[in-house]
Amino acid sequence: MLRRVDSWTRTLRHAKPSSSESVRLVVERLSHEGRGVVRPGGKVGFVAGALPGESIEARLVERHRRFDEYRLLDVVEASPRRVTPACPIVERCGGCDLQHLDHDAQLDHKTAVLRELMSRTAGLEPAVPEAPLRSPPFGYRRRARLAWHVPRRGAPRLGFRQAGSREIVALAACPVLDPVLASLPGRLQPVLASLRRPRQLGHVELTVSESGDGRPWPVLYLHLVEALAAEDRARVAGFAAAEGAYLYLGLADQRAECVYRPEPQAPGYLLPESGLRLTFEPGDFLQGNAAVNRAMVRRVVEWLSGDGVRRVVDAFCGLGNFALPLAAAGLAVEGYEGDAALVDRARRNAADLGLDDRARFSVRDLDADAGLPDGVDAVLLDPPRTGAAALAAALAARPVPVVAYVSCAPATLTRDAAVLAGAGYRLERLAAVDMFPQTAHIEAMALFTR
């Protein structure tokens, strides 16, 4: 008897089916982006929601020259690693594309993809293939951006984008959000819907702040199209006060205004192993997973605290997430960052923490100016998805003994690793980073020496 699968059947709803008949398929493996791979007649096909080893019923929905796409209809024989998704709207929400796969299997898949890409693209195998940096499977996410839509008819909606669509799925609660944020969207939505002019709101950002004693506080940042009317402003301020949440209002190209704060301190987060609290402002880039960020900071400090490392360049340093723990460990750090506002925040954090004698920060476009100062013992790279091509070339032309690379995109990590390998760098350590469980997104850390 077939076991009905409703999840992911809407993912390709805009594609025009090429056939109305279902076919029986066996799934070989997962693609890098987490879809099941099948080969009917020898041609590669992809099936969202299918797992390796499963026998499935699927329908062809789109033909391409090199591959086809199928819609999953039923699972005939399920993988032992298939689990029931924890979220009731997972089949519509576009956020979690691997919630049907158990967490350990997700990590196995991400580790295998990372190592395969590193071997194929850069020709490198790590001397020490480290275990992945693990996250709790749920309740981990400390940042979220929620879309807001006011239709001509019907109720306004606050939530995430629907899979394969720009439609918004109204969100009552989200199991991957930090417990402080998890049910906040459901309580916030009716407040926003009751505004006299709800179309003045563009979107909403939620973040978790930690006080010095570790107490978490929600941070609510409303991105506005126009300034709120006085009565609407009072309404959202009252909601923030009742929730014990920081409230910020922001118009485009203007600094966010703090309307309410539940404690005197600016929002911040803790790095307990380093004894630090770093402050931030709404809209600043923060790693989305607090537990994994702490693990990454510990690993970077461990990697760069070896014999002979005294002076470090932190490229793409942000507000000092890695630079300041390295300075607290006794190293001299120069941080480079293209965003002037983040550099200001890094300098302020260094001064507040008494580390400005060991951590200095400069604004620099690292794509245009990748030059390194003399006497550097190690370089830390933490680039955006586009990677660090210019810096990899600079490090190849002018090597340093140690390079640590924190990546949110394995494709550009391995591209840059190939450049380093061509200049004689060795891959000492490689680890997948479980930044976003329940998704196919892969992050990584790598250590190179020369």
Core attributes:
single chain, 450 residues, alpha/beta, OB fold (Dihydrolipoamide Acetyltransferase, E2P), Rossmann fold, 8-stranded mixed sheet, 7-stranded mixed sheet, 8 helices, disordered N terminus
What secondary-structure arrangement, pairings included, does this model have?
Layout: E1 3-4, E2 22-26, E3 29-30, E4 36-38, E5 44-47, E6 55-63, E7 67-77, H1 103-122, E8 128-129, E9 143-149, E10 157-161, E11 168-170, H2 184-193, E12 201-210, E13 216-224, H3 230-243, E14 246-251, E15 257-260, E16 268-271, E17 276-279, H4 290-304, E18 311-315, H5 323-328, E19 332-337, H6 340-352, E20 359-363, E21 378-381, H7 389-397, E22 402-407, H8 410-422, E23 426-433, E24 443-449
Parallel strand pairs: 5-7, 8-23, 13-14, 18-19, 18-21, 19-20, 21-22
Antiparallel strand pairs: 1-7, 2-6, 3-4, 4-5, 6-7, 9-10, 9-12, 10-11, 12-13, 14-15, 16-17, 22-24, 23-24
Helix pairs in contact: 1-8, 7-8
